[in-house]
Every structure is written in structure tokens, then in C-alpha cells.
TrEMBL record:
GO terms for molecular function: 3'-5' exonuclease activity; 5'-3' exonuclease activity; DNA binding; DNA-directed DNA polymerase activity. Gene3D superfamilies: 3.30.70.370, 5' to 3' exonuclease, C-terminal subdomain, 5'-nuclease, Ribonuclease H-like superfamily/Ribonuclease H, Taq DNA Polymerase, Chain T, domain 4. Its EC number is 2.7.7.7. This is DNA polymerase I.
Length: 887
DNA sequence: AAATTCACG
DNA sequence: ACGTACGTGAATTTA
């Protein structure tokens, strides 16, 4: 045996973490017998990762034997007052042990001792026998066991992230050695284990004292030399507690275990029993893994896929014709494909799979031809990502006309995963792993060194794209979504790829100037606020701010949050009159937001080409809208003057060019008028009335538009918005600051005046109940399982969603069509103008000076004619030498 | 990682 | 008598 590696797992604490990691899925993880299985499942997932990363020769999972231990005998309150372990977890514990047994892994518990002590004892055995040891736990106590040959991995939030405590890491975190950590705990006590240390001593002081004295014993030996202080008094008073705490905190490294290190050697897996166990638990994923590995026949633990590794010599042999269908997958590590490093690629044609780490092979003429020839159709996963990434290699892809990611998003977007493996699993294909399994995440994210492991992953991805194409296309057809897929989403992906690659020019100099101006303003406001508060504090901390406003200054706390006082605008606005500090805080907040999110944030993402290249997420939202990240260009400020200044930094590519903006007027209400068929509202749009004034006339029973006051219009506008969101009297009253009764009157009047809108809302809810989903004009679906929920709030939310989704979603369909037509038009006319940004109902263009007149004409034309509704679509334009002026 | 806050349509 | 507008992303603090 080459390496002696020991893996020690704190069974109870890891099971506990596993249980809460999948707590939200508690009810969906059940065996046919009704047993909860979430903790068992998550435990196995975590174990797989550990076995792979550590690759141990010896493994032991230690469990607690019961509540009574030598520590509880020493101190009755030990671990007292702890919340009971939930029954749903307790019932799973024996099964975790059973599974471990089937996997050939030893489990052990010892009466009167905690799992910690068993682990401590085996750490000692490991050190004496020359093992490299890894301890895994959810409990920081065990970090005292770290040594040059022993690493303690502590689960961080969930189970997938581990924090590795080596002696060095311990020093960084606590400033002491692992052994000294015990002394630290002696002074500070342990809240979760329910024993005190010395009053008034927390982690910081404890660490400092132990760094100075080395141990509790030494500290008390020299206590007389300490100068008089409150702390000294407390140290003397709580001396007994400190020594008791030290005993409780010390893990026993010599507990009377009855097994030895040879007994924890990994044993062969009992595949037959394991298979039965997985069946009993209904673990389809693990069953599939067993099948794929040909379990029991002694083969490797992953499915072996046949592939050919491409190199400079054999790459020339890869040929394809128009008759061939090709699967292509280009892998990068990281989400941002504008920058992410390439990992490799795989290519399938004529039933042969080619793989390589060397993406430059794609630039070879024959391969490049395959990717660029429109007539050779390619199946991919994430068309847009593939297209942008290929472009970085100088490859202009054409003929990418099937995208597994887009197809699965249209079929069902409840799970908005973008991981090929996860999506394949949803459709019953477990032959491919998730990226998380292969690459890891966070700090430990990396590409496997092992060629076979990586190439198998890339090859299995290609296979999944191919084998799931038929069933996915059938589903699309069933859903009447083939047109949505072929004529909207696929072309939209291509348009978006070009928009992202174009990017938008952002002038850093403008932002830096703003940064300086805002810095001065912020400083002034800060000083004023601290002055009035009578102290300095962290203005960005709602907790500290709440303390100042509601405790120190005694302002009335209007609203509470889960964790304390709310300090949101809503609250502060109401307090403005009570103290001048409030307005200054509001001003500070507003400018600080702009400074950090927009000025700093944007400066950080300007690329060397002087532009920002956002990514539009096309497969994320529940309604079919796009979203925008890195940076988000869909929430650049517009509502306040300071915020708006940001837009001055967004400029055209050419110095004398224009930013041209065109936005739909009231699309969502027009969509509502169309889908509801409401005659009164349609009439208003057809006549070209101001819709909010029209609504005001209707609900306030006025005869002429002249009688509409600004306040009435504001109220009517809020009602119109409310209708689109699935209104309630409460929501409207809160929004407008009127009584609930008055709000209800508005709504009643509204439905009286627009009766078919009321019908639409009722019908939308009823349809969602019958079909289980809501649908847009282009057959985009949103499933609403909560529409049948027992809980009123949950069900009511689903009902409002059923009303809103077809409206928001149809508007999203419409602008996607407009974008496709717009790009086509730009190409046909050979214009240099670039479409650069989409903000839900608005398109932004980067226009050379001499194309402005053409653009002014064609953009609104194309947008207004995207679809034919029963009411006209109107789009309004603006332009200027930067985004600010384009209004 | 969750919670809070606030930017947009 | 319930508790309540729809859809997003990013920065920051706190635990």
C-alpha cells in the first residue's frame, strides 16, 4: 500500500448538517414506506465527494452513543437546553449506518463517550502509525485535533463547502495553536455546549490572553502579576469555571475503544445489498450510478464512454458533410464565458466522439469548417455561451439550431438549473455527472488532472445532448412550443450573443469624476449624521442604525424585520418630520448605493476594450423575461438625478455617434387589453388616450379629461399597475397611502368599468387550476403547483402569479420578436448600428452619426409591428450623445 | 448563506 | 379572520 490515509467522520454532526442542507426538500425525499430520506441522501453525496478527494485506505464514521457521557457526569448542564433533534432526522440515523455498512465503511459508537472522543483516539492511533488523517465534522471543537499530519475539515453552511483547519489555518483564524485552542475555550466557554468560561471574555480576549500566557495553568500561575482590572477580578472569581471548561473542552485521545486501526480498513462494497437499499430508499440517482458502473463486476466507478483524443496529427481526419448531424460542446471553467478559461471540447459525428483539452484544435480548417458551415447542423447545450466562446477563438459559428438548455427551459422552468448533468437527470438520464461533482465549487473548484475523468465527462455530455434531443423535441411539440423554440428562443440566443459581444462603451473618466463628487457628499453627510447621533457608527449596518434611531434617539420603530428594526425607505420616509437626521440618512443611503453599486461596480467590470460585456440570462426567469448580470444593465438608475448621472458614462463607439433608445409605451396594459378583450380598455388604446387619465375618468365617474386632477391620475395609474400584478385592496392602500376601504372602492369601480378584465382574471386563475400552468400568447408556460396549496398565502400568491405571468410573459415574447426582426433589418441594410441593451420594454442602440436618420425611422417601425394585437403597439424614441441624453 | 436594502421594468 | 401587489441583480453586514 502506497499511502496510509485515514478518514474520520463525525457521523452525528455530519448527518445533522446533511439534514438541514436538504431541509427544504424534506417532504420530497421520502421512501415508498414514508421514511424521510433527505439526510441519508445528502450524507451519501457528501461521502462520495470525500472518498474521491481524500481517497482514504481507512475510514471510520463515529457516532454518539447517547445523552449520558463522562462530561454530563462531570457537569450536569453540559449540552443542556439544546433543541431536541427532529424526529424526521432521528428516524434516518439507523439507515445511514446501514448504508455505510453496505459501502464497506466501519461505524462505531462507545458508551459514555462522544463521537469526538472516538475520533480523537483514532487521530492519535493514526499519528502513531504514520497515517495522513482527515477529520470531517460540523463542529469547530474538533479543530483542536489539527496537526501536521491531521487536517480537520469543518462543514461551512450546508455540506458542500468545507473549511480545512491545519495548524496554520488555526493560527490565522484564532491566533493560537490547536492545543492552545482548548485553553481559549476554557476562558470563553461554549454557548452551544452550554458551559460558561470566565465572564466577559470572548474569543478576542481569550485568544490574546492565551497568546500571552500559553495556557490557562500558566495564566493563573502569574495572575498576581497582572495589573488591577475588572478582567483580573473576573478571572480570579471564575477560576473554577475556567478549569472545568478546560476539562469539558478537551477531547479524550485515549478513550477505551475496542477496535483498532486495522479494523477500519475499507472493505469491499456489498453491491447486492446496496442495490436493495437504494431501491428501498428510492434513490434513483444512486441506482443509476450502480448500473452505469456495472457494479459487482469489478469495473470502474463511472460509466466508460468510448472516445478518441484529438491531437495535431489525427485532427485532420475529422470530416463532416451536410448529411451529418453534429453535437458540439465547448467547456470553460466558470460562468462568465466572456473571460472564463477554456477546459476542452467534445464533438460527436457519425457515432464517434472526439475530445481534447486543446481548444486551438478547433481552429484547424476542417473543424472550423464544420462549426461555421450553416448547412451542417449542430446540436449544443447553451447556444449563446457556445457562440460567444467560439468567437473568442476566431470561429464564427453557424448552424447551431438545437439547444438542449433552451429546450428544457421552455418545457419546464421550475428548476432553473443551467447544469447539463442536472438537467439530464431531470429527464432520467444519469449517465452524465454534474459539473459540481466533476469540478467542485468555491475554493476547491478545479479541472481534473486525470485525462480519462475529464474526457469521460465531456463525452458523456455530448451523448446526453444527442440522446435527449428527441424526447425534448417531442415535449416541445406536445406543449405547442415548437414555434416558440425555433422562431423565438433560438434566434433570440443568436441576437443576444451578438449584443453581448458588441458590449457597450463606458467612459471610466466620467465615472471617476462622479466618484469624487459623491465621495465629498458622502463625507459631509456622514459627519452631519455622526454629529447628530452623538457617536460614530457603521451607517451601512441596519442593525447599528436601528440602535441609534430607535433606542438612542427614541424614534418610534414603525416596522420590524425578522432580525430587528426595519430601517428601509418606507420607514424612514415616515420619520422624516421627526428629526433632521432621518433625511440625511436617506440622502446618504441613496448616494452610497449609487457609489458602491454603480460607480465602483461598473468601474470594476470595464474590459480592456473600454466596454462592458453583460451576460443576458435567457433561461432564468419564471416569466420569460431576460435578466442581465456582470454587470446588470437592466437596473441602471433613472429615477433620481444623482443616479441618472451614471448614464452619462454610457457612450457610443464613435465620438460623434448616438445612443438611441426606443421603448414600448404601456406594453403590459396593451397586452392585458388584448388578452382580456375588454372593449373599454381597447377603445382607450385605439383612440390614443392617455391610459391612466382614461382610467381616472372611468373610476371617478368623470365626463371629460379636463376634470382629471394630477392626484386622480396618480391613483388611477397605481390601480392599473395593481391590476397587472393581481391586485388586493391592502396592497393598493399601502401603495397609495389610502384606506383599505377607499382602495376597495377603486377596485370595484375599475371592474365595473372594465368588466372583461375582471373576467380575464377569474379565467386566468381557473385555467391555472385546471391545467396546472399559465401560458403566454406564444405558449410559454409557467407551472403553478401552488395553485392547489392549502395555505391561503401560498395559494393566493400562485393566483396572482397566474394573472401576472401571461401579461409579463407575453410582453417578453413580443420584445424578443422585435429584437430578432430588428437584427435582421440591421443586417439586411448593412448598417453599422449595433443593438446593445434590452431593458424589458426598451431597446438601446449604438449608432454611427450618419445612420441616425435611418434608425429613427426603422426602430419604432419594427418594434410596433412585432406582433399584431387587437390594440396598437406604440414605441417612443429618444437619442443623444450618451445614454443620459437619449430620452 | 441569509438577511436587508435598493436599483430597474 | 386570514396577510397580501409581479419580475429581477448587487452590495453590504451579520452570523
Amino acid at each position: 500500500m502506497a499511502d496510509k490515509k485515514l478518514l474520520l467522520i463525525d457521523g452525528n454532526s455530519v448527518a445533522f448538517r446533511a439534514f438541514y442542507a436538504l431541509y427544504r426538500q424534506l417532504e420530497s425525499f421520502k421512501s415508498p414506506d414514508g421514511l424521510h430520506t433527505n439526510a441519508i441522501y445528502a450524507f451519501k453525496n457528501m461521502l462520495d465527494v470525500l472518498l474521491k478527494d481524500v481517497d482514504p485506505t481507512h475510514v471510520l464514521v463515529a457516532f454518539d452513543a447517547g445523552k449520558v457521557t463522562f462530561r454530563t457526569k462531570m457537569y450536569g448542564e453540559y449540552k443542556g437546553g439544546r433543541a431536541k433533534t427532529p424526529e424526521e432526522l432521528l428516524e434516518q440515523m439507523p439507515y445511514i449506518q446501514e448504508m455505510l455498512h453496505d459501502l464497506g465503511i466501519k461505524t462505531y459508537e462507545l458508551k459514555n463517550y462522544e463521537a469526538d472522543d472516538i475520533i480523537g483516539t483514532f487521530v492519535d492511533k493514526g499519528e502513531k502509525n504514520g497515517f495522513t488523517t482527515t477529520v470531517v465534522t460540523g463542529d469547530r471543537d474538533l479543530t483542536q485535533l489539527a496537526s501536521p499530519s491531521t487536517t480537520v475539515e469543518v462543514t461551512k453552511s450546508g455540506v458542500s463547502q468545507l473549511e480545512a483547519y491545519t495548524p496554520e489555518h488555526m493560527k490565522e483564524v484564532n491566533g493560537v495553536t490547536p492545543t492552545e485552542f482548548i485553553d481559549m475555550k476554557a476562558l470563553m466557554g461554549d454557548n452551544s455546549d452550554n458551559y460558561p468560561g470566565v465572564e466577559g471574555i470572548g474569543p478576542k480576549t481569550a485568544s490574546n490572553l492565551i497568546q500571552e500566557y500559553g495556557s490557562v495553568e500558566n495564566l493563573y500561575d502569574h495572575i498576581d502579576e497582572m495589573k488591577k482590572s475588572k478582567r483580573k477580578e473576573r478571572l480570579i472569581r471564575d477560576k473554577d469555571k475556567a478549569f472545568l471548561a478546560k476539562k469539558l473542552a478537551t477531547i479524550d485521545r485515549d478513550s477505551p475503544v475496542t477496535i483498532d486501526i486495522d479494523d477500519v480498513k475499507r472493505q469491499p462494497v456489498d453491491y447486492e445489498k446496496l442495490r436493495q437499499f437504494y431501491e428501498k430508499m428510492n434513490f434513483r440517482k444512486f441506482l443509476a450510478e450502480l448500473n452505469a458502473s456495472g457494479a459487482g463486476q469489478g469495473s470502474a466507478d463511472v460509466e466508460k464512454v468510448e472516445y478518441t483524443v484529438l491531437n495535431d496529427d489525427n485532427v485532420k481526419d475529422v470530416k463532416a458533410t451536410e448529411k451529418d448531424t453534429v453535437e458540439f460542446y465547448l467547456e470553460m471553467l466558470g460562468a462568465n464565458y466572456h473571460l472564463a478559461p477554456f477546459v476542452g471540447f467534445s464533438l460527436k459525428l457519425n457515432d464517434k466522439i472526439y475530445v481534447s483539452r486543446d481548444v486551438e484544435l478547433l481552429e484547424e480548417d476542417n473543424i472550423k469548417h464544420i462549426l461555421e458551415d450553416e448547412k451542417i447542423k449542430k446540436n449544443v447545450f447553451d447556444l449563446k455561451r457556445t457562440m460567444v466562446a467560439a468567437h473568442r477563438l476566431g470561429i464564427h459559428t453557424h448552424g447551431l439550431d438545437y439547444d438542449m438548455l433552451l429546450a428544457s427551459y421552455l418545457i419546464n422552468n421550475e428548476n432553473n438549473s443551467n447544469d447539463l448533468g442536472e438537467i439530464a437527470h431531470l429527464y432520467g438520464d444519469y449517465s452524465v455527472k454534474t459539473d459540481l461533482e466533476v469540478y467542485g465549487k468555491g475554493k476547491s473548484e478545479h479541472v481534473p488532472d486525470n485525462d480519462d475523468e475529464l474526457f469521460n465527462h465531456l463525452a458523456s455530455k455530448i451523448n446526453a445532448i444527442e440522446s435527449l434531443k428527441k424526447p425534448l423535441l417531442e415535449k416541445l411539440k406536445d406543449h405547442e412550443q415548437d414555434a416558440l423554440f425555433d422562431t423565438i428562443e433560438i434566434p433570440t440566443a443568436r441576437v443576444l450573443a451578438r449584443m453581448e459581444m458588441n458590449g457597450m462603451k463606458v467612459e471610466a473618466s466620467t465615472l471617476i469624476q462622479l466618484q469624487n463628487e459623491f465621495a465629498v457628499k458622502l463625507k459631509e453627510l456622514e459627519d452631519k449624521i455622526y454629529d447628530q447621533a452623538g457617536e460614530k457608527f457603521n451607517l451601512n449596518s441596519p442593525k447599528q442604525l436601528g440602535h441609534i434611531l430607535f433606542e438612542k434617539l427614541g424614534l418610534p420603530p414603525i416596522k420590524k424585520t425578522k432580525t430587528g428594526y426595519s430601517t428601509s425607505v418606507e420607514v424612514l420616509d415616515q420619520l422624516k418630520t421627526q428629526s433632521p437626521i432621518v433625511s440625511e440618512i436617506l440622502d446618504y443611503r441613496q448616494i452610497a448605493k449609487i457609489q458602491s453599486t454603480y460607480v465602483k461596480g461598473l468601474l470594476d467590470v470595464i474590459q480592456p476594450d473600454g466596454r462592458v460585456h453583460t451576460r443576458y440570462l435567457q433561461t432564468l426567469t419564471a416569466t420569460g423575461r431576460l435578466s442581465s448580470v456582470d454587470p446588470n444593465l437592466q437596473n441602471i438608475p433613472t429615477r433620481t438625478e444623482e443616479g441618472k448621472q451614471i448614464r452619462k458614462a454610457f457612450v457610443p463607439s464613435e465620438p460623434d455617434g448616438y445612443i438611441f433608445s426606443c421603448d414600448y409605451s404601456q406594453v403590459e396594459l396593451r397586452v392585458l387589453a388584448h388578452v382580456s378583450g375588454d372593449q373599454n380598455m381597447q377603445e382607450a388604446f385605439k383612440t390614443g388616450y392617455d391610459i391612466h387619465s382614461h382610467t381616472a375618468m372611468k373610476i371617478f365617474h368623470l365626463d371629460s379629461p379636463d376634470q382629471v386632477t394630477p392626484l386622480m391620475r396618480r391613483h388611477a395609474k397605481a390601480v392599473n399597475f395593481g391590476i397587472v400584478y393581481g391586485i388586493s385592496d391592502y396592497g393598493l392602500s399601502k401603495n397609495l397611502g389610502i384606506s383599505r376601504k377607499r382602495a376597495q372602492e377603486f377596485i370595484d369601480n375599475y371592474f365595473e368599468q372594465y368588466p372583461q378584465i375582471k373576467d380575464y382574471m377569474d379565467k386566468a386563475v381557473q385555467e391555472a387550476r385546471d391545467k396546472g400552468y399559465a401560458e403566454t400568447i406564444m405558449h410559454r408556460r409557467r407551472y403553478l403547483p401552488d395553485i392547489h396549496a392549502k395555505k391561503y398565502t401560498v395559494r393566493a400568491f400562485a393566483e396572482r402569479t397566474a394573472i401576472n405571468s401571461p401579461i409579463q410573459g407575453s410582453a417578453a415574447d413580443i420584445i424578443k420578436i422585435a429584437m430578432i426582426n430588428m437584427q435582421k433589418k440591421l443586417d439586411e441594410l448593412h448598417l453599422k448600428t449595433k443593438m446593445v441593451v434590452q431593458v424589458h420594454d426598451e431597446l438601446i442602440f449604438d449608432v454611427p452619426k450618419d445612420e441616425l436618420e435611418t434608425i429613427k425611422k426603422i426602430v419604432p417601425e419594427v418594434m410596433q409591428s412585432a406582433v399584431k394585437l387587437d390594440v396598437p403597439l406604440i414605441a417612443d424614441s429618444g437619442w443623444g450623445h450618451n445614454w443620459y441624453d437619449a430620452k
